[in-house]
Write a structure and sequence with these properties.
The structure is a single chain. By secondary structure, the protein is α/β, with parallel strands linked by helices. The chain has three domains: about 180 residues, Rossmann fold; about 80 residues, Helicase, Ruva Protein, domain 3 (Orthogonal Bundle), CATH 1.10.8; about 100 residues, Winged helix-like DNA-binding domain superfamily/Winged helix DNA-binding domain (Arc Repressor Mutant, subunit A, Orthogonal Bundle), CATH 1.10.10. The chain is about 55% helix and about 10% strand. The strands form two sheets. A five-stranded parallel sheet has the order 2-3-4-1-5, with helices on both faces. The chain has a three-stranded antiparallel sheet with strand order 6-8-7. A hairpin with a 5-residue loop joins strand 7 and strand 8. The radius of gyration is 25 Å and the shape is globular. It starts with a helix and ends with a helix. It binds a DNA duplex through helix 15, strand 7 and strand 8.
Length: about 400
DNA sequence: GTCAATTCACATGAAAGAGACCACGGTCTAGTG
DNA sequence: CTAGACCGTGGTCTCTTTCATGTGAATTGACGA
């Protein structure tokens, strides 16, 4: 594009009307004023937390349910309201929200406690201090707050998976040592079976109350979408049937409202970019494709070299043969690739873990099978359609500069 | 033919090491009055 | 005398290796019908 062309482009862009009124409404960070189809759950959380307004320690709550079914939203909504009430009535109540999945912020014991302490205004260095020192700081900070402290641990399962359940035990036990304050925990997890894997002592104290969030069905998703779309889009900029299709797509994927809204947002962006004044049904299809493509691209390019090399060898083998792929084959080829690009090959033990990680990311499918006399191994298959494999291979070749 | 033992090729767990990053306190050094 | 540079120690964190143990069905081989 020439510079003149660029200027034309921008003025034309300014001239075209957007289909959006307020795109932020469709972003996952947005909190709507009213939460649809979660009345029962919200009331349940509220009634459990209510004693805190009388300075009694409310029970710990464990909330679980699939992704994008309103767990975090509901918990934050209730705690925000309760905080408001506390302020109005001069009650010393504090709500801390921590997302345990956030890398470099709260994904280890040290970081979580440090982050919590920071919420109380204590400066904690990112590393270098002994963990019990940080615990002490946190303990003092909480105790001097003299009130009820509700700590929301979002995606606790991720934390526990990484560092074990000891941290939860420590947190629940802190109450015994606090003189002036009390801590209540709200654990939020996507993982349904997470609780069963916990130490029984931790389990019983963390889940004094349990609340299950069922996934939204297609109709509920429609309601939610209509509510958001009203705010997000200009009137009349959505074709009939778009919302329904969007909801149906997401309902198929475990009723994930977050994904549903992303779908609608991206569809809107696609419509806009192609100078449509309405979001049409076919834009949903393109959006679905684009989201999937982008997700894959991000995963592929952000993986460490070792994972990329492992995946590359899996992809290479899968292109050649239609049969099954086993760990041993992958490792052999992987070693070859490593020497070719000057990478120090890892041990098979580690590569085995990397394969499991790739499975978790959803790029490959892995099944542990026993071939009888011929040993036990992982049967690996790509979980992306065969038509996409050459593209993946090219991306990885680029990334590895092969 | 039947049944238990064996065997393979990894899976899976636990522990520990390497190297990067960081805080903190003590020591050294150069600049200043 | 003092501020800043520079070390050594001790801590976390991530990625990895090493060592050890587990696993499930095909295969094998002894046994009896």
């Amino acid at each position: 594009m020439t510079q003149k062309g660029l200027s034309d482009f921008f003025s034309k862009y300014m001239g075209t009307s957007s289909v959006f009124k307020n795109k932020a409404v469709l972003q996952s960070a947005h909190t709507p004023d009213t939460i649809l189809h979660r009345d029962k759950e919200i009331t349940a959380i509220a009634s459990i937390l209510a004693p805190s307004l009388r300075l009694d320690k409310p029970s710990n709550i464990f909330i679980y349910g699939k992704a994008g079914c309103g767990k975090t939203l509901s918990a934050r909504h209730v705690t925000k309201e309760i905080e408001k009430h506390a302020v109005n009535n001069n009650i010393n109540l504090r709500v801390l929200y921590i997302n345990c999945k956030l890398k470099k912020i709260a994904d280890t014991e040290y970081r979580l406690i440090a982050q919590l302490s920071r919420e109380y205004g204590k400066a904690i260095p990112p590393t270098g201090l002994p963990t019990d020192e940080v615990y002490k700081t946190f303990h003092n900070a909480v105790d001097s707050s003299k009130g009820i402290n509700i700590i929301i641990l979002d995606e606790v399962d991720e934390l526990v998976k990484k560092v074990g359940d000891e941290i939860l035990y420590n947190l629940t036990r802190i109450n015994d040592e606090l003189k002036n304050s009390k801590i209540s925990l709200i654990g939020i997890s996507n993982d349904m079976v997470f609780l069963e894997a916990l130490d029984p002592r931790v389990r019983s104290s963390l889940s004094e109350e349990e609340i299950m969030f069922a996934p939204y069905n297609a109709l509920q998703l429609q309601d939610i979408l209509i509510q958001r779309a009203k705010e997000a889009f200009k009137e009349g900029s959505i074709q009939a049937g778009v919302i329904e299709k969007c909801a149906a797509y997401a309902a198929r994927e475990h009723g994930d409202a977050r994904r549903c809204m992303e779908l609608l947002r991206v569809a809107g962006e696609i419509a806009e970019r192609n100078n449509f004044d309405k979001v049409a049904i076919e834009h949903i299809d393109s959006a679905d494709e684009k989201i999937e493509r982008d997700r894959l691209m991000v995963i592929l390019t952000t993986q460490p070299k070792q994972s990329q090399a492992t995946l590359y060898s899996i992809v290479s083998i899968s292109i050649g043969n239609k049969g099954n792929i086993f760990t041993g084959d992958v490792y052999e080829l992987y070693k070859g690739i490593c020497t070719r690009i000057g990478l120090r090959p890892l041990t098979q033990r580690r590569v085995s873990d990397i394969i499991a990680e790739l499975d978790m990311l959803g790029i490959i499918n892995v099944k542990v099978i026993s071939k009888g006399r011929y040993g036990r191994t992982r049967e690996i298959s790509l979980s992306v359609p065969g038509t996409a494999t050459p593209r993946i291979k090219r991306i990885l070749e680029d990334a590895l500069s092969l």
